[in-house]
Structure formats: structure tokens, C-alpha cells
Design goal:
heterodimer; A: about 280 residues; two-stranded antiparallel ribbon; 11 helices; B: alpha/beta; 6-stranded mixed sheet; 10 strands
Chain lengths: ~280, ~230
Amino acid sequence: MTQILIQGLLLSGLYALIAIGFTMIFSVGRVLNLAYGAYLMLGGYTYFWVAQTMHMPKPIGIAAAIGIGALAGVAMHRLIVRPLHSDPVAVEISTLILAVIIQAGIVLVFNDAPKVLHPIVDGVWRVGGATVTFNILTATVASWVILFALYHFVRKTHVGRAISAVSMDIKGAALSGVNPDRINMITWAISGALGAIAGVFFASYTQLSPSMWVSPLIIAVAVVIVGGIGSIIGTLIVAHIIGFMEIISTTLIAAELRGVFTMLLIIVVLVLLPRGLFGRGEL
Amino acid sequence: MTLLEIERLSAFYGRAQSLHEVSLSVGKGEVVAVIGTNGAGKSTLMDSIMGMVTNTGAMRLEGQDIIGRSPAEIVRHGVGYAPERAHLFPFMTVEDNLLVGGYTAREDIDRNIAHVHELFPVLKERARQETATLSGGERQMVSIGRALMTSPRLLLVDEPTIGLSPKVVAEIAATLRRLNEESGLTILIAEQNINFAMELAGTVHVLETGHMRISGTPQELMADEELNRAYFGT
């Protein structure tokens, strides 16, 4: 029981971090970025190359991952989303293809054997029969800190409020002097950076492989669909629903079921509650 | 002195043309109204001034050419806009809506908020409420307030009275008059509510299916027989 509670909390924090960058793009730009999982992969591999291949300090590896993620986000906005005028179907098809291309690129550069990341923080913590690695604990704490910072950024800064404004009413934002295109690009950069840092933690929790972009993408899609998009708080809540569901099903039923219930939940919510649990479309 | 000058302005949505060589000018400190029925092109005219529509012709703000500029640039040039149906941010608080309005005029935010609260005290009470929960009149006040947060020299107000009770309409009229008289703010109003427009404006233009039909003072327009038949049913 304690095991489930602790593992559930740890996993859910990470899932919230994985999902938030994806939900931001959906609420601001009204498109699903199916290459979002590739940010996690780019972040994970960048960190691996800098910290483990080049033996540079870990913080430099994390910073490099964030930089590459933000760059990938801006590039996708300028080269794909803008030319396609944010047409949802065209963007979804293009970004899905892009994810597969990035996967091929990763295989080409790093080969297709899975790689293990050394823990970002070493050590374990035993609590009530459960074992918690400092690594996953760090990932969860970092997720919470990042989400908290993001929440304040969106509410308390001009650019953050402009991001919410564009997500709620583009015309209203434009006549307030906000340039929606610029805000969209900033959001793509933030989304890429968030995806990349989530990727470093996700890879240190599982492992690096060229197909690692799929399961975080499913988690992110599930959070958007179940939560009915939206708020940072909503993302946190839904991430906990999904995280706990996964821990309970893999611990109590069978480990092979990882991810299955999440996908089933997507279908159930689509059929029963097409607008999601919270049903409002804004950040 | 002329603040806004529009010459032979046409507007296009795709291939459809919704304004046909419209000309008008707004002097500094004036209140000017554009009246017309639904679909006459009033909102298109307002959107055109904001740089939200494809246009041909000339538009100058204090002599500076503003045609083809982005809405963000027009706002920085000193045009505030309270559009039809307000376009507020429904799940943000009243205060945050106003703060987004202050996106460009950041150094004036404290002064502008105090000014808006003084004009519309109810917005101070409702500061922490989401605008989705407000009444129609209160939303209109947030909309005008948000436009004032841009520190405008010219305020555009599109259909401020639509769907509002006579009491609220009178309140909005009094506030706009006060803004003009006390702060010297230049105001351009688009309205279907002719009485509201005639009461406030020094100059009134009549727009019909994208053409400027007639212009004059309210008294001159009242004297025009054909116009009287068409608009006042007398």
C-alpha cells in the first residue's frame, strides 16, 4: 500500500512534467504536436552525449538538453506550424512524420541499442518497506518545482499572461498589443525545453532508446483528452489519475499492462466525456 | 488638428469586399460616430484601423502612415480598441484582463488601473472574479477598461450598448463623455443605437453596405428627410 502510494506520487509528478509542454501547445496553438515525444528523446540523448560520452558535468548536460529542446520547438514552429497556418490535421501529420524522422536520426547517430543513463543523483531511501531512489525523487521534486515556476510565470508575468490570453481569445490578445505569432513561438520554445528536461528525467527513470518517444506522447495525449486541456492544475490532477492507475495496474495485476489502461482511458473519455473532465479549452 | 485620417479605404475578406473607398477624419479631442445597420461594415472599419483586415487606400495617425501595420504596432501608436462582443479572456480575472491590456504601456499600469477603477468602481470589487461570471454591462466595462490600459490617444468603441439595459447604456455613455471631456480622449464609436451615437458624437457618419452615405453633425442628419425615413421612421 505504502509502496503504491509512494510510487504513484513519484510517477505522477514526472507525468505532469511530461504532459505540461504538450498541453501548452494545444491550448495556445490549437494543434497536437505529435513530435512532442521526440523532444523527450532529444533531451535524453543530448544529456547522454554531453554527460556520459563527453564526461562533462551533469548540469551542463541538463542545460544542453534544455537548449536543444527549445531550439527544436522554435524550429518546428517556424518551419512547420507557421507555413501550415496552424492547420490542425496538416500539423498532426507533419509532426508525426517528423517524430519518425528524428527516431531514424537517433538510430543513425547513436545506433538502436538502448542506453542506460547513470542516475542523475545517486543513492536510495528506504521508507516503510518501499525503496525510493534519490534519482526518481529528484525527478519528482524537480517536476514540482518546474510546474510551480511555470504556474507563476503564466500568472504573474506579462509574457505568461499573454500566453494565457492568446489561448483564450486571439483577437482580444492582438488588440491588447500582444503579437500572437511571437507568443506562439515563445510557447513552442518553452514546450520544447519542458519536453527535453522531462526527457532527461524520464530516460533516467527508464532507459534511452530510439522508440522512447511513443509512451510519453501517449501520456501527454491522455492528459489533454482526459483533462479537456487546460490549466496547469488540471494537468497535475489528471497526471495523478493516470500515474496512480498505471502503478496500481502494474503492481496488482501484471507489469505487462503498463500503458494499456492509459490508452483505454483515452478511448473511454473520448466516448463518454468528449470535452474531458474539466472541459475548458484554455491555459 | 486631425488625429486619424482615412482616405478611400477599401477592405477585403478573401475576395469579398466589405468597405468601398470610405473616407473620414477624426480631429483631436472629438467624438465621432459611425452608424449603420448590421453588416454595413462598421466593425470592418474598426478592424481595419487596428490592422486586422487586408486594406487598400490610406490611413494616417497624426500624419504617420499606419496602413499594413500589425495590430501590436497600431496599439503602440496609441489606438485602444473595445471591439464588438468584447473579446475578453473568459477564464482570467478582471484584474488579469486589465493587465493584459497593459502589455505595451507597462510603465503606466498603476496609473491606468487606478483610472479604470475610478471610472468603473465595480471592476475594483470584481477584480478577482473571472470575466466569464460577469454581467453583460460589466464585461463591456472590462472591455473599455482594457482598451484604456493601452494608454490610447484614440479610443475605438464598437457597439458598446448591444444587449445592455437602458440604465447601463446611460452609464457607459456618461463614462465615454467623461473620458472625452476630462481627459480630452478622442473617441470613435460604431453603433446601431442611433440615439446613443447622436447624443455623444459631434460628427456622425452613416455607413451603408460598405459605402459612406452621408456625414454631418447630429442636427444636420436629423434634418435630412430621406435619412429620417430610413433610420428614425418618422
